[in-house]
Amino acid sequence: MCFLNKKKLQKITIFFSVIACTVALAAGTLTANAEAEPAITGFVTDTLDLIDGGTNLIDGGDFESTPTGSWNVDGLLTNGASIDSDNPFKGSKQLKFVAGESETIASFTVPVTAEKSYMFSVWVKGSQLSDDNSGDVHFGIADPATGDFLTTNESNNVNSTGTKALTPPSWDGEWYQRGYIFNSGNLTSIGIVIRGTASTAYFDNMVLCLEEDSVKPDTTITITHPEVTNANPDKKGCKPQHNLFENTDFSGSDTAFWSEVDNFDAFLSIGGDKGKSSNKVLLYDGGSEVIGTGATYKKWLDVKPNTEYTFTTDVKAYVESGMTFGLMYLDGNGMPHVIAGDISVPSNQTGKWMIASYSFNTKDIERVAFFINDGGGNAAFDFIKLFESVHGTKLTDTNADPNQKPIDPGKPDDGKKPGVPSTKTGDASAIVFVVIAFLSAAVIGVLSYKKYITRRKERQTV
Length: 462
Ligand SMILES: [Ca+2]
Ligand SMILES: [Ca+2]
Fold this sequence. Notes:
The protein is an alpha+beta fold. The protein has 3 domains: about 1-35, no CATH class; about 35-215, Galactose-binding domain-like (Jelly Rolls, Sandwich); about 225-460, Galactose-binding domain-like (Jelly Rolls, Sandwich). Helix content is about 15%, strand content about 30%. The chain is built from 6 helices and 22 strands. It has helices at about 5-30, 75, 255-260, 265, 430-445, 450-460, and strands at about 40, 50, 80-85, 95-100, 105-110, 115-125, 140, 150, 175-185, 190-195, 200-210, 215, 225-230, 270, 280-285, 295-300, 310-315, 325-330, 335-345, 355-360, 365-375, 380-390. The strands form 5 sheets. It has a 7-stranded mixed β-sheet, with no helix packed on it. A hairpin with a 5-residue loop joins strand 18 (about 325-330) and strand 19 (about 335-345). The longest helix is centred in the N-terminal third of the chain and has 24 residues, at about 5-30. About 40% of the residues are buried. The chain binds calcium ion (2 copies).
């Protein structure tokens, strides 16, 4: 394609365009049988799903079972990537990529037909930025011979010859679908490459298919959302064997249930209550400011659908805290929602053990997460419970007055991420929270990674 049909360039570059076309034609004449270069042809696409009955050229792209081909090769699995079950997007497993201090490159190849248009897509989640995670993962289709990512068809333009890779669009710990359309050009196999330095990201539902087999993602999967059935259940307690949480008074030495979860090390630890050091609790340290990073800890648990459960926890804010917590779930399209609302300790209740508790029906949901959103300040949790309400008993294991009315969890707010407080009409503190949330987002957005790290280091020395 020569420049002559690019209208905006036509007038000013007409002379050079003629030369460029002449050169291109001459080259074409000299290499009449040359095959086309592979190239990305559609960076912005909404057809990132495989049509029903279509063929995914990546065997086991959901990473649920180990197939005989495609990704199950040393080039991928011994180079920073592994199959893990700590963060699945769908099902129970996903690909986890952990890049070390020097650049890590994981790849595998897939046979393709030359001169065909293909769609590549994957769900990706970048871990929160931290001391160990620089947010540097990039991935996409590469030429197996060179390892270079494909260029866009813009590369025919002398002004743009760079290779193009995809990145997680955000490092907020949420899943996003990324992908593009490309032409295989002269390639009969393509490389799927993930590269990065000092970064962690997760991948699931990876698809490579002919473009004609790609369709718009179905965003119309509807579910019946969980419903709060009782904002102050009588039976807030249960026997240990009915509690889905483990080591819920934190006295046990095996802390893996709580600690082997993303973001635990960022702002959580298990240690003595500041008021009574012999009582082990889950300690939240979001620094001395009321504004935190907005990062979220999520401990996922399997639940039965259409079943009533009760959630109860002790919580104490040592100082005024912007930290929020509660239970969340994902809808059929993978979007997060909060059951009831984000719970926060009222500022006039600091320094005292409070109870948060409500009962809800799971409806279509089979997984919920206990989340803690890093909103700043210091707090502690103890005796965390989630149990089927039929097993409910009087609450006896609590640091608080068992007859205390639980903290109002507020209203559910569909379609928002946990940790962004909902606005309650006429509630001045809620408005303050919203301002804080905006400030928090702005702070995170503006601060560079280095400033963020400096801030966390400063906190650690306080
Ligand atoms: Ca999966
Ligand atoms: Ca305890």
